[in-house]
Design brief:
Layout: E1 2-6, E2 18-26, E3 32-35, E4 41-48, E5 51-55, E6 58-60, E7 67-70, E8 76-80, E9 87-94, H1 96-105, E10 112-113, H2 119-131, H3 136-159, H4 165-175, H5 183-190, H6 194-205, H7 209-227, H8 232-238, H9 244-255, H10 259-266, H11 270-284
Antiparallel strand pairs: 1-2, 2-9, 3-8, 4-7, 4-9, 5-6, 5-8, 7-10
Length: 286
């Protein structure tokens, strides 16, 4: 049984982000979906049960906490195990911004990611669909940020199994991008001294953990500036800067212009968003 909030009627090709449906499914034993050259993008999380997924010639066996990515244009079939029925939550979306984020954050030609702790983001989307059921622009603005955070977590989870110490440090920094930085806390979690994690990170990436963390915050700030109406002060608070003045100074130091000027230059500019992700990928090998 599918339960969802439908926003298809608000779809607009001119929007950088479209979120068409947010919902959940309690599968029965006859649940079987097959699409040839799918016209949708979707992310799903399995909250219970097991089943089979086939995408573009690859076969997976998604179970609890697995995330399924179904890109537009893919040929896919998926169905539940009749004895361990799937329960899942999902979001259907479109638009150049989310397309670019999926391509930038998810490994190429991989469509199932086990052991991803992202249920909280699907719950946030579900709550958002109810809160902004009659305010589609606001829904897409906030929904895009939630999906961005989700993709970051999926990327980190998919690469965490064979991580070096430097990669584990980077993962911790990525996960805390909306918090305040505590190298002592990260050192405790990883089991090395603070001086060691600073040295090994700098040797691996050619940048200090603090600088990396601040640049990640600024990347998140750029997404907020371009895709939401949030004020500079609200963004500073969301990203845990001490105040808007400190945030503006950090932003200008890294980007060369103020947050307000960046917003004026890039509002609605699809190329800028893709360029940001591409530059980041080239610089740090993400």
């Amino acid at each position: 049984m599918d339960i969802g909030v439908n926003f298809w009627q608000f779809y607009n090709d001119a929007f950088p982000v479209n979120i068409m449906v947010i919902g959940k499914t309690d599968c029965d034993k006859n649940y079987h979906i097959s699409r040839e050259c799918s016209g949708i993008n979707a992310l799903e999380i399995i909250t219970a049960g097991s089943g089979i997924l086939k995408v573009d010639g690859k076969t997976y066996y998604p179970s609890k906490n697995s995330v399924i990515y179904l890109p537009k244009g893919s040929c896919h079939t998926y169905y539940t195990d009749e004895t361990e029925l799937w329960k899942k939550k999902w979001v259907v979306f479109d638009g150049p911004v989310l397309d670019a984020l999926c391509k930038g954050y998810l490994p190429k030609d991989e469509f199932c990611f086990p052991d991803c702790d992202v249920l909280c983001y699907f719950n946030e989307l579900e709550a958002l669909s109810k809160k902004y059921e009659n305010n589609y622009p606001r829904l897409t603005e906030k929904g895009a940020i939630i999906i961005h955070r989700m993709l970051t977590r999926i990327k980190n989870a998919s690469g965490s199994r064979l991580m070096s110490v430097a990669e584990r440090i980077r993962m911790n920094l990525d996960l805390k991008v909306e918090q305040q930085l505590s190298l002592d806390e990260i050192a405790s979690e990883i089991g090395y001294s603070k001086n060691y994690i600073i040295r090994i990170f700098n040797e691996t990436y050619g940048i200090t953990p603090y600088r990396y963390f601040m640049e990640r915050k600024i990347e998140a700030a750029k997404l907020y500036l371009v895709n939401t109406p949030m004020s500079v002060g609200e963004i500073a608070e969301e990203l845990n800067f001490a105040d808007s003045h400190y945030f503006s100074n950090c932003f200008k130091k890294i980007c060369g212009i103020s947050p307000k000027d960046f917003r004026k230059l890039n509002r609605g500019n699809e190329y800028t968003i893709q360029g940001i992700n591409k530059d980041w990928k080239c610089k740090f090998g993400v």
